[in-house]
Every structure is written in C-alpha cells, then in structure tokens.
Amino acid sequence: MAEASASSPTNSGKIALDHGKFFKYESIRIEWTKHFENHYFDEVHVVKGFFKTFHRTHKRFQFVVAKLFDETTHLVVRADDYRGIKEELERRTKKSLPEVSHVSGVKIMEDRKSFLDFESHREFSMSLKNENDKIRQRRKEEAKKHADIFRDSLKSKPCPRVLAFDVETYEHDKVTVLEVGYVMAQIDKPEEQEAFHYIIEENLHYSNKDYVPDNRERFKFGSSKRMSLVEAAEKFQQHIADVDFLVTHAGHNDEQYLAGCGISLEGRQIFDTQMLASALMTGGPQTYSLKRLLGDLAIEYEEDILHNAGNDAVYTLKAFLSLSKKI
Predict the structure, then answer these.
(1) Which residue ranges does the record assign to the Gfd2/YDR514C-like C-terminal domain (predicted)?
(2) Per-residue confidence at 252, pLDDT binned at 50, 70, 90?
(3) What is the pLDDT of residues 128-168, one digit of tens each?
C-alpha cells in the first residue's frame, strides 16, 4: 500500500481529473463490516477493530480526497491500496471478502491525505458528509425543477419529436471522441424511430478496455458508419434542427464533448434522464447509472452492448419514454 509522510495538495493546487479506479473508503468499511455481520457474526469484531485501528497501524497511509461525478466529495483509495487492504483483512480473518464497486473520472482535490487516528478521520468524514448533504439537497431541488420544466413542455406540446444522443470518448483522454450515437422519434410513435451510429475514423487506433469495454462495433439498432468527426458533427447538427428537444443521460459531459466538435446546443431544450429519474423515481439512488435506471424501469437491455454510443442513445430514449409516463 502506498504511503507518504504527510498530506499535500495536488501539484500547483490544480484540480486534476483522474479516470483510474478508486474506491470509497466508507463503502469498503461499511460493506465488509455488513458482510461479516450477515455471514460471520462471531468474528465481526475483528473487522470493526481493523478499521478502528487502521490509522494507528497505517500511519503513513495515503488517502485521496476526490470529488465524484455527482459533485460530492469523499475519501477514496486507489486500486492498488484497495487491493492491499482487502488482502490484509482476508489474511487476518481467513475469509474471502466481496468486491466493492469502484468509481472513476474523479477530480482529485488532495492526493495525499493522512490521519493520526480514527477520531481525526471521523471528524474529517463528518465535515465532508455535512457538505455532501447540502449538495444532495441542492441537486434534489434542481431535479424537481427539471421535471417541472419537462411537465410544462409536454403540456404545451404533448407529442414532441425528440432526439436522444450519447457520445463515447477515449477513457484516457476524454477530448478524443470515438463514437457519436443518436436516435430520433416522436414521443407518441416510438416504434418509428431512426437510429444513427457514427464511428470516428481518425480515432480508430484508440480503444477502450481498462475502465469500459470497446463496443463500437456492436451497434444493435441499425448499421454503423465510419466517418470523420467533422462529418459526424455536421450530420448531427442537421438532425437536431428537426426535433423539438434533446434527451441525454448524465449529459453534462456529452454537451462538452459536442462543443469540442463544434456542435453548439445553446438555446436547445435538453432533458436529462438521470435528473428526471431523481425527481420521478422513488426508493432508488439519487444518482442513477443508465444500467440501474433501465433495470428499475423494467426495460429489457443487453448489458454487454452498453457503452456503444448508438445503443446507449436508444436505451436512453426508452428510459425517457418510460419516465414521461410518470409525469
């Protein structure tokens, strides 16, 4: 496990974007403690003791303070450190531990954060929790406003023509666009949809594999076309002129990618299924992945063809149509 003598900010105080795998420390502690409570209750004290004394026994351990995609900030550990913690605890307990879900695409706020003891760690974590609660409340209010705007739009135009889109980028350089996918349909005639999938020719030598699969050749809802980014941007720009509004899932990044291609969405009404789900779904997470949203809406999908821009656009449209029935 990596260690450092003291915590220090990132170089020059700049916020860096890191697309590696990170694991929330609290998720590690909570999930493994619950695992023992459910399966090995007589030994749960070993796990609790391990985490309570972790800072004293790993005084030079490097945590990372990172802002996630939902704008909340957490203590996380890098993949190698996660693996080291897991192996050490498995040796102590002589039990296998379940894997914990990772996060990626985080903004590094501080890359070497250390604690003297459990109490100082808890105090810092509570300060993060208080700030995160405020952020979640703000996002909840924003999601409600988003749903209200959608509701008003449907009142003024009950059967709009929409375009759902997705952009796939290279996992190690998010400005490199690999695919553009979109689908157009009238909301009351979804079966008459037109789907498009463009593979960017000049970026064929880039392939995702470390954090997401390379599924660019697995478009299910039509035929893919290879073309330059300029040509794909021109075609997309022409088609968005023919619809009433646009749909995306967690699309704040996609809008930035399209802007980098010279496509301006300024003045266009864009609805985000992630925000709509936050306002309209009950009992689920505040921030939905596309996969989780499809599952909760009981929409059939093939998991192994996600992360193809065309497929994701079609699935986003399906989710949007289902959410529109909840308005």
Answers:
(1) 163-322
(2) confident
(3) 999 999 999 999 999 999 999 999 999 999 999 999 999 99
- Residue for token digits 């915590």? 7
Can you list the positions of beta strands (E) in 201-286?
A: 224-227, 245-248, 270-272
What amino acid occupies position 270? Answer: I
Q: Give the count of beta carbons closer than 10 Å to the beta carbon of residue 21.
A: 17
For helices 309-324 and 273-280, give the axis angle rounded to 10 degrees.
30
Cα angle 108, 109, 113 (rounded to 5 degrees) comes to 100
CA atoms of 327 and 310, how far apart (whole Å): 26
Mean pLDDT, rounded, for 32-42: 97
Contact 310, 219 (CB under 8 A): yes
**What tens digit of pLDDT does each residue of 191-215 get?**
999 999 999 999 999 999 988 899 9
- The separation between CA 310 and the C-alpha centre of its own chain, rounded to angstroms, equals 18
β-bridge mates for residue 24, sequence order:
76
- What are the angstrom distances between the C-alpha of 38 and each of 27, 33, 45, 188, 200? 16, 9, 13, 48, 49
Q: What is the mean pLDDT of residues 309-314?
A: 98
Closest CA to 47 of 61, 63, 31: 31
Q: Are 172 and 220 in contact (CB under 8 A)?
A: no
Tell me which H or E stretch contains 66.
strand 63-67
The answer to whether the CB of 108 falls within 8 A of the CB of 73 is no
Residue 76's DSSP bridge partners are 24, 64
Tokens encoding 84: 């080291």
Query: Cα separation of 307 and 298, whole Å?
Result: 19
CA pair distance 182, 60, nearest whole angstrom: 49
Residue type for position 189: K
In this prediction, residue 5 carries a pLDDT of 32
